[in-house]
Structures are given as C-alpha cells and as structure tokens.
C-alpha cells in the first residue's frame, strides 16, 4: 500500500507513517488487497483527507468501518458512491437533515460535497474485507485515526466534532473541550434511531449556528 496523503495533512501525519505499527498495518493491508476483495478501492483509502484540506477543516464526523458491500464505500464515512442505494444509517442521517433544516431529502448518497466544504468524514478503520464487517479492526488503523483526532485537536480550534453512538463518543477523550465544540447523540443506525436516540438531535442546524457565531461559512448539508 502506497501511502499518498494530501499535502495539507502531511506535516502533522508524516511521523505516523514512520512508526512500526504503521509499517505493519501497511503490509497487512497490502496483503489483504492482493489476496481478497477489499473496500474502498485502494486509491480512495485516504479520500477523507483528499477532499477536506486541513486549513478548511470545520467539522469532524467519526464513523467506525467502511461499508463492505460492492460499490458502496468511497473512503468517506457514511457516504456511498453516486447511484448506489442509501444504506440504513445514511437514510436516517438524510431524514434528520430534511426535518432539521426543512430541506428536500438528498438524492445522492455521495458526501464528497460535504468534505469539500470542510467536513472530515473519518472512519476509525479505513479498510475492510468484502462482506466481513470489522475484518480490518485492531490492525493499527485505530491508532492512526486516533492520532488524526489528537492532531486536529492540538493544531486547530473551534472545530465541531459530531460524535454519533457509543463508539464515536469514546473519542471525546482525545479532544480538547476548551478549544472545540462537541455534539453527541445516538447512532443513526435503525437500532439506535428507532429507540429515539437519533431523530431530533438537530446536529446540522446546531453545527451551522456555531459556525455562524464564529463568522465561518455554514455547511450546505
């Protein structure tokens, strides 16, 4: 696996690429991609960083694992490629946006347009074997993505972190709460959303209200 990360992130993340755990992770991922079908495509493993420049960063959304079905994952958490049916969590995200902001339900599940506005769509694990959820967890990706969160917390200020579900909420310990704005809720998956832990969280309008309060451009969700 060739590590090609966008220039704007290189300065703060380059040290990680030199570490032993990352070298082991690289050889594991390379072997998995050579011997099995894995997602996302190799060229889009670091897409979250390609679309969202560090200087433009306003919002971080943390997911857990890429989608493991064909043609779904595109390197951005919760996002799917154009023309692909929306997975259940994404449907609930779009339903909340629609009711929160009084806008039409979006047609495309591709969230590149969010990323280009400064939303880092970061999965904790950046790769997965086809049809095997969680198959690349605990191989080193989490160490890397935790460091990403720490570095953002250290280098930036007034970033909105959207932590959805128990897994994402645990990441709050990596964030300086005095410098940043954290919003938490249940996960948008049907299991959590149907129990009343997701709908009505108004995270999208709250994010924009905060950005407006610090004279930053609001996100067009």
Strand order of the largest sheet: 3-2-5-6
Rough outline: globular
End-to-end Cα distance: 33 Å
Radius of gyration: 17 Å
CATH superfamily: Uracil-DNA glycosylase-like domain
* Oligomeric state, counting identical vs distinct chains: single chain
> How would a crystallographer describe the biggest sheet?
4 strands, parallel
State the domain count. 1
Name of the CATH first level: Alpha Beta
Notable traits:
alpha/beta; Uracil-DNA Glycosylase, subunit E; two-stranded antiparallel sheet; 6 strands; 38% helix; Uracil-DNA_glycosylase-like_sf
Structure description:
By secondary structure, the chain is an alpha/beta fold. The chain has one domain: Uracil-DNA glycosylase-like domain (Uracil-DNA Glycosylase, subunit E, 3-Layer(aba) Sandwich). The chain contains nine helices and six strands, in the order H-H-E-H-E-H-H-E-E-H-E-H-E-H-H. The strands form two sheets. It has a four-stranded parallel β-sheet with strand order 3-2-5-6. It has a two-stranded antiparallel sheet with strand order 1-4. The longest helix is centred in the first third of the chain and has 16 residues. It is globular and about 45 Å long. The model has no long low-confidence stretch (mean pLDDT 96). One of its GO terms (molecular function) is uracil DNA N-glycosylase activity. Keywords: Cytoplasm, DNA damage, DNA repair, Hydrolase. Excises uracil residues from the DNA which can arise as a result of misincorporation of dUMP residues by DNA polymerase or due to deamination of cytosine.
């Amino acid at each position: 696996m060739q590590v090609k990360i966008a220039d704007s992130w290189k300065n703060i993340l380059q040290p990680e690429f030199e570490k032993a755990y990352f070298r082991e992770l690289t050889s594991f991922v390379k072997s998995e991609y050579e011997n099995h079908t894995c997602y996302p495509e190799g060229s889009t493993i670091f897409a979250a960083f390609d679309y969202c420049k560090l200087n433009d960063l306003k919002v971080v959304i943390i997911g857990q694992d890429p989608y493991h079905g064909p043609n779904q994952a595109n390197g951005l958490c919760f996002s799917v490629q154009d023309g692909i049916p929306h997975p259940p969590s994404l449907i609930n995200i779009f339903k909340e946006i629609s009711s929160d902001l009084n806008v039409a339900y979006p047609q495309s599940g591709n969230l590149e347009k969010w990323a280009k506005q400064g939303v880092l769509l970061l999965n904790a694990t950046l790769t997965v074997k086809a049809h095997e959820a969680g198959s690349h967890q605990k191989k080193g990706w989490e160490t890397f993505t935790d460091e990403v969160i720490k570095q953002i917390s250290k280098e930036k200020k007034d970033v909105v972190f959207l932590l959805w579900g128990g897994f994402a909420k645990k990441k709050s310990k990596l964030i300086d709460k005095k410098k940043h704005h954290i919003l938490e809720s249940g996960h948008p998956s049907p299991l959590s959303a149907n129990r009343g832990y997701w709908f009505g969280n108004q995270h999208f309008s709250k994010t924009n209200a905060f950005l407006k309060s610090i004279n930053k451009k609001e996100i067009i969700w």
